[in-house]
Specification:
3 strands; single chain; 3-stranded antiparallel β-sheet; 7 helices; mainly alpha
Length: about 170
């Protein structure tokens, strides 16, 4: 599976060719620093790694700087990663956010299937998490311990709402 930075780069390049500086400006304009900080060094190094793996390539349109485009292999890898992200529940909400942001790489059928699988997983997680919370409340554990469980329930509810709107 791709790293978060790789997902962002490939997602940007699905929309058209860009150089690394333009991608950094997009990251800045999206205020990603608050939820997925990607520095210049990380972005440039990731571009080089993606190029070595033949997931992106330099279009050769500029002598001064690399202008990247996604390859067919890169599109397939991004698609596989987005599907994999829908198939797992992780309380690091950035993963789900990236899956949703770049879900347009999926066909309607693939997205429908991914959403159905995700919804089933979320239902299962929600049920188990609520049961765990109820047990904790019955045993009168400190509310500070219950807060983390409540947060998980809210994340699941938010993701279910997002799926319904997607």
């Amino acid at each position: 599976m791709l790293s978060k930075t790789s997902i962002v780069i490939l997602g940007f390049l699905c929309k058209g060719e860009k150089n690394a500086y333009d991608m950094l400006k997009m990251i800045d304009s999206m205020n990603m620093k608050y939820w997925l900080p990607i520095g210049a060094t990380t972005l440039y190094e990731t571009c080089l790694r993606l190029q070595k793996k033949a997931l992106i390539e330099d279009s050769g349109e500029s002598q001064a700087k690399a202008i990247y485009r996604i390859t067919d292999k890169g599109k397939q890898e991004l698609k596989n990663t987005v599907i994999a992200l829908f198939d797992q529940v992780d309380y690091d909400t950035v993963w789900f956010c990236l899956a949703v942001m770049y879900s347009d790489i999926l066909s309607k059928e693939e997205l429908y299937t991914a959403k159905q699988k995700r919804a089933a997983l979320l239902d299962e997680y929600e049920k188990g998490t609520k049961q765990n919370r109820d047990i904790m409340l019955q045993h009168k554990v400190p509310y500070s311990a219950v807060c983390a469980i409540e947060r998980m329930i809210r994340i699941v509810e938010m993701e279910k709402e997002t799926l319904s709107k997607l």
